[in-house]
Amino acid sequence: MKWSRQHEQLRLKLLELMGQRATPFARTGQAARRERMEGPFLEWCTTYLPHYFDAPFAAFHQRMADAAGEPGMPTFVCAFRGAGKSVLLTLARPLYRALRGEAPYFIYGSQVQKLAAQNMDFVRLELEYNSRVRGDYGEIEVSGAQAEWTVNLPEHRGSVKFEAFGIGMSPRGRRHGEHRPTEFVGDDLEDAELARNPEREKNLWDWLMDEVLPALEPDRFVFTVLGTMFGPDCMMERAHRLSESRDDSRRPLARAFLQKVTEGGRSVWPERFSDDTLSRIRATIGLRNWLRNYALEPEDPTKPFQAKWMGAYRAEEIDLHQLDVVAFLDPAVSEGARGCPRALVAVGADRGRGVRYVLDAWIERGTPMEMMGMLFDFNRRFRPRLIGVESNGGYALIRPLLGMLEAERRVRLPVRYVNHTRPKDLRIEKLSAQFERGCWLFPTNPNAGVKMLQEQFLSYPDGYVDGPDAAAGCDELLPEAFVTAPEAAGYVSLQGRTDFSCL
Fold this sequence. Notes:
This protein is of the alpha/beta class and 503 residues long. Helix content is 39%, strand content 18%. It has helices at residues 5-21, 30-37, 41-48, 59-67, 85-99, 113-129, 131-137, 192-195, 198-215, 235-243, 275-285, 287-295, 368-382, 395-409, 424-429, 431-436, 448-459, 466-477, and strands at 74-79, 105-110, 141-145, 148-152, 159-166, 183-186, 222-226, 255-259, 262-263, 266-267, 311-313, 324-330, 342-350, 355-364, 386-390, 415-418, 440-443. Mean pLDDT is 89; it is low at 485-503.
């Protein structure tokens, strides 16, 4: 087997970095050696693999490492691009477990055997050339071909076998001495092309469930697969459905670990991805690629709202004075951590073209005073013709509070209290046809509130819908005889969508 040119170049780069950063330890005594070898896993990674781990770990790294490794539990890990999941789970963790004698037989899987062998090769490079590893763990012997090799460990720690498989190759009946394969590591099993082919997706899943899993040591096996969100029937979505099933003891049949790049609108790894960096990435790659690679939202063509229907505009392209600006507030009653967020959305409409520009959105579980502060802020910045406020359970709180603040600030807001008679779902789903015609545009570099609004639309009808409800409220404040965009006249949908013609 001959390595690809890309892999050969990467090997040379890694060996260079290894020589520069993984230099021998100054403290070589038995106590220091034992202290390093027995450290917690993430600490061990930074100690022995400094050429890979040069940024501080985030809290999610520990959760991700803990998720993998439960005996007898097929585990599927999906994390945002750049999270370090491959280095942590396909290189560092197998190396750590092999050196400790915790797993005598690893099998790696990928789309083709060569890719799996290349992933294994990163482990072999550390065993053969890392002076820190060899200094503390002794003279390690590695022998065998690229797709199947064995590590002999000193100090009577036995030997460990590594073997590579491509999709369709059966590991059944494989042995290393008395051991069946004890750990499966799957990476690069799926790509966008494969995910668009239902038959190939089924073949991948059947291979994992029918060939790989039964070949492993029963109950003791460790099964870790890394994946990406591609669509409603991709490997990760299948894994998620399997994780919701239980055996007779109520134990899940699988575990699906998902880690998005943001939580609560903020970066989960600010040392590597600042909020400003993430905003730039999102603006550069576009919403669809952002959702797949960073927000981990599978593209589902059956959803009422699609990412490709969300147009973009630059702030300098519009003149607020030429737009019909309205805003709508869904005040939400609950203030608990799990309650519905409050949502305030401002929309500027071009009556001639039928286009709605989302100017801003605030979607938070804020206090009533914070909500009122945002209401006054939106009024100051956008000067809306009307501000709709939903007359739900929060009405009794909002009206007197707003009246008090208007008197204090000597500002009168153009508020209209709205009592909706149609169900929320009907009001939101009415917007789907407008989205498909390209009538809703969002800022090219949206803030946290607008990002949340877009994500709630794309997740609809799942999850929270307060933002879409407020956007629908804005649309209802616009004139009934609203002209549609002329460029939309010849639009032909390329895919089916939910039929809302009954509305």
